[in-house]
TrEMBL record:
Enzyme Commission code(s) on record: 4.1.1.36, 6.3.2.5
Residues reported in the UniProt entry to bind CTP: 277, 287, 303-306, 322, 336, 340
Protein family membership: In the N-terminal section; belongs to the HFCD (homo-oligomeric flavin containing Cys decarboxylase) superfamily.
Protein name: Coenzyme A biosynthesis bifunctional protein CoaBC
Catalytic activity: (R)-4'-phosphopantothenate + L-cysteine + CTP = N-[(R)-4-phosphopantothenoyl]-L-cysteine + CMP + diphosphate + H(+); N-[(R)-4-phosphopantothenoyl]-L-cysteine + H(+) = (R)-4'-phosphopantetheine + CO2
Gene Ontology molecular functions: FMN binding; metal ion binding; phosphopantothenate--cysteine ligase activity; phosphopantothenoylcysteine decarboxylase activity
Listed cofactors: FMN; Mg(2+)
Organism: Candidatus Geothrix skivensis
Record region (Phosphopantothenate--cysteine ligase): 190-400
Boundaries of every Flavoprotein domain copy: 1-162
Ranges where the record places region Phosphopantothenoylcysteine decarboxylase: 1-189
Entry annotation: catalytic residues: 156
Entry-linked Gene3D superfamilies: CoaB-like, Flavin prenyltransferase-like
N-terminal signal peptide: none
Length: 400
């Protein structure tokens, strides 16, 4: 993605350098525009060094410097896939909301047809002022996106709203708003399960598995970025992605109840969670003490979430399951597909611990037409995007 990063005059401008580096490391092309006030907090050399791209606008030694002032603002406006203003002051927000163009950044904002994203940062009183909120509301009517600031101790010493949003949150918002949408997924309601479930043995110990939930979370991001309306039912400890309705669960029963509440309204299900297949028959209310000799643990089956949801689907709903197998991968995946009446199963090889955590992974889609070409090996974020592309093409081809 080609990202034009506008930096205005606030103390949070120093954080824009970290954002520029983060976006560059994610593979985006980043160019920067500094306002005259922004150049008092950060220099063009810093931004150019971090992004490898040019920095336009203000120069602390020359005021506003424009290499090609006659057409520069039009070239930048056309170049960008997305314009992000981070941090955004009340001044630049007011200018853009009212069509004013008195410097390079405000001129580009007026000229561009790209998606514009704002990450405001200012004093609490300024943030809450009716004029600022009215200007932001007007920008939203233009189709602009706003990442609201967080709360905390501000540079002025006050505490309240106005703190620049977390940089990872801003980066996720940029990814979402700048990613082209897939026509077969726009507006589709997709229910996704992710993460491990945990079954309590006693107040201290649990029965669980090695899944972190990373793959399911990346799938939720990829479906979100493609235009789907995602509801995520999430176990484990990983943070939930930005911009998603997320229901946190612990046990298989809790996951089933959350899914049953949302499944009737969904268009499709991606069951990526690693659900514990057993739970203790009688969990202890007190910590179990060590004893001499053999100890016995009686287990019972947890509910089969995927089978239950598949059996309750209405016409038009689709279901994708996952299979983590250590042997006879395709045989087991085909059996799961048929037994649970699924539309597809994504199978991976878990021998020697591969596929867990932050490792790269390979998934083989299996449908009623048999195994499909493998997706991967790829890092999990790219693999999730490949899965979404593959499934969107199948949806676009007609009924599943």
């Amino acid at each position: 993605m080609r990202i034009l990063l506008g930096i205005t005059g606030g103390i949070a401008a120093y954080k824009a350098a970290d954002l520029a580096r983060l976006l560059t490391h994610q593979g985006h092309q980043v160019r920067s525009i500094l306002t005259e006030a922004g150049a008092r907090f950060i220099t063009p050399l810093t931004l150019t060094s971090l992004t490898g791209g040019p920095c336009y606008g203000a120069n602390p030694d020359q005021g506003e410097w424009r290499a090609n002032p006659s057409i520069e603002h039009i070239e930048l406006a056309r170049w960008a896939d997305l314009v992000a203003v981070v941090p955004a002051t009340a001044n630049i927000i007011g200018k853009a909301a009212n069509g004013l163009a008195s410097d390079l950044l405000s001129t580009v904002l007026l000229a561009t047809r790209a998606q514009v994203l704002w990450a405001p940062a200012m004093n609490t009183g300024m943030w809450e002022h009716p004029a600022v909120q009215a200007n932001l509301a007007r920008l939203r009517t233009f189709g602009h996106a706003v990442v609201d600031p967080g709360e905390g101790v501000l540079a002025c010493g006050e505490e309240g709203s106005g703190k620049l949003a977390d940089l990872l949150t801003i980066a996720e918002a940029i990814q979402f708003h700048g990613t082209p949408k897939l026509s077969s997924l726009i507006g589709r309601r997709v229910l996704i399960t992710a993460g491990p479930t945990r079954e309590d043995l006693d107040p201290v110990r649990t029965l669980t598995n090695r899944s972190t939930g990373a793959m399911g979370i990346e799938l939720a991001r990829a479906f979100r970025d493609a235009g789907a309306k995602v509801q995520l039912v999430l176990g484990g400890d990983l943070p939930a992605p930005w911009g998603l309705e997320t229901i946190r669960v612990r046990s298989a029963q809790q996951m089933l109840e959350a899914c049953k509440a949302h499944w009737p309204q969904a268009d499709g299900l991606v069951a990526a969670a690693a659900v514990a297949d057993q739970r203790p028959e009688s969990p202890s209310t007190q910590k179990v003490k060590k004893v001499e000799g053999t100890e016995m643990l009686s287990l019972v089956r947890t509910p089969d979430i995927l089978a239950q949801l598949s059996s309750q689907r209405r016409p038009g709903q689709w279901v994708i399951g996952f299979a983590a197998e250590s042997e006879d991968h395709l045989v087991h995946a085909m059996a799961k597909l048929q037994k649970k009446s699924l539309d597809a199963v994504l199978v991976n090889d878990i021998q020697d611990g591969q596929a867990f955590g932050a490792q790269a992974n390979t998934l083989i889609p299996v449908t009623d037409q048999g195994p499909q070409p493998a997706l991967g090996p790829l890092p999990k974020d790219q693999l999730a995007q490949a899965v979404v592309q593959w499934w969107a093409q199948r949806l676009g081809a007609g009924p599943v």
